[in-house]
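Sorry to interrupt, but I need a hand with the structure work. Go ahead and set the record down below:
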Amino acid sequence: MNITVSPAGRGRFHAHLDGRLLCTSLTPFFSAARVLKAEGVLPQEPLTMTHDGSTMVCLTSTVGEAANFTVDEGRNGGPTLRPYRPSPFARPE
């Protein structure tokens, strides 16, 4: 499965799979993986990401692994991969 991302403004990106919008996020690869996992895609399914208009793969993982992470824009030296924790303010589905 390949996620294609395109700019959405203000640091956000649209994440598409086969033309279908999965999400708009600051971390589209990881957010899209969580959407796919919630839709029942198997965790071991390979997942890649390309930018719209390019064929170069810039990220690769599995749905299950990618769904477990997010990016933290830390104060001490830039972005860091961190375990994903849902917001305590998120509404249950």
